[in-house]
Structure formats: structure tokens, C-alpha cells
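Per-residue structure
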Amino acid sequence: MSEDLILWEKDPEDAFVTLTMNRPDKMNAMNQALGDALEAAILRAVKDPDIRAVLLTGAGRAFSAGFDLGGEDFEMDADRWRDDIGENMRRFRLIREAPIPVIAAVNGFCLAGGLELMMCCDMAIAAEEAKLGEPEVRHVSAPPTLMLPWTVPMIHARHLMYTGDLIDGTEAARIHLVNKAVPRSELMDEARKLARKCARMPGASIKYAKAALNHAQQTAGLESSWTYNRETTAILHASEEGKYWMRLLKEKSLKEFLDIREAPFRDLD
């Protein structure tokens, strides 16, 4: 685990650890190194008998802005996209299926893959002014797991997936995207209180409750929906429109790319 990319802070009183994604200059955008570090930290927590809950947050002004769009060539065919999406699915599944609760403390921007990461956690508390959404749909992209319809009513999932709109923490709580929204100054206290409560529960109670709740979603079709979404997303990215945007990402700076992407919506957002 990279101590620079994931900060590990074991609580001195209760059996939980706070993991902080630490790429604040990149708004904690997930690249290979951060993904590896997060995976290693989750596995370390799961193997530690003195840890019964994980609190996950981000350094700086973001929980996570999603997958890192800089420095890579994303103009790929469907097979390569299928492999890439599958690796992200595997990582998110690891968090979702960890036998201890993982609680997200959403301190700021929580976008695209960052939102998917949050939704694969067991519970989430957001700062009232946090910004959450799937803006990647505006450049012909899609999330790797499509957790929205498993988290919020379909009418809200459609709104976020059809428009790329961002909502604040208060609205996220209203539509049940997060459990609770609090002022930014109170976020970590509230999140630690929830982690502390989980840590004081008998470990077996949560382990088997989580297994049963996850199984309920599995039998309702979650795994099948993830697999189908992997195929549609790979096809989407490899389409002519998808290739155009990935080519534009390669040719332009990230700021220029985002300016072009957001231009049609400036009078509507």
C-alpha cells in the first residue's frame, strides 16, 4: 500500500480505520496507483482482527472526481474497454463484498467513478455543499458498475444518467443517494460516530447481515445488471461518438476538454 496515496488512521478508541484518498491536486481522481493502494488498504483492514469498520474519505475538496482522464490513450476497441471495465468492476466488488462495513464520508466532489465507489460502500454521509453526479455521460461515457438504479428510485437514476447534472449533498440525501447530509464542518464527526457505532456492534452481526443484504440484491439481478452494463459501456466507448470524445481527450488539455463538453449546457445548468 502506498502511504502517500492512502492515508491510514486507526482510531485510538474503537475498532475502525479511516482511509483517506490522497491525491488532492487531482481531486483524488483514480489512476492505477490509487486503485492499487485502495485495494491493498481494504484488504489490510479486512485481515486485521482489530478492525470492524472502515471510513473512506478524500483529501482536499473532493471525495473523488472519478477516473483519471489525463495521461492515457482511451481510444480503444470494445475488447480492450471490456477488460478495462472488468478490472474496475473487480475492485468495486471487493469493497461491496468486504465482510466489514465501509462508510463513505463525502467531503466534496463525488463524480462518475467516484460516485460509483461511494455507492459500493455500505453507507454514505455527505457534506451539504458536496457535488455528486455522473457528468461523464456528457462525453459519451458511462460508469463501470451502474449502481444508481440499485441505490435510488429509477426516476432519479434516469435524471442523473440522462443529463449529467450535479446535485448537492442535501438533494442527495432527499433522494436517498446518501444516508444523511450535514454541514461540512460536522462531516467527519458524524461519519466517525457512525463508524464507531458499527465498530461496537458484534462483528458477526454485521458480517452476516451484509452477506444477506448483498445476496438479496444478487438474487434480484445485480450481477447480471453489472455484466450487461459492462457490455453496453464497452460498445458505447468504442462507438464513433465515443472514439471522437476519447480522441478529443488525447488532443486537448483536460481544461479545454471539459470546456468543450460543458459548453452546450452552460445556459441550462
Notes: The chain has a mean pLDDT of 94.
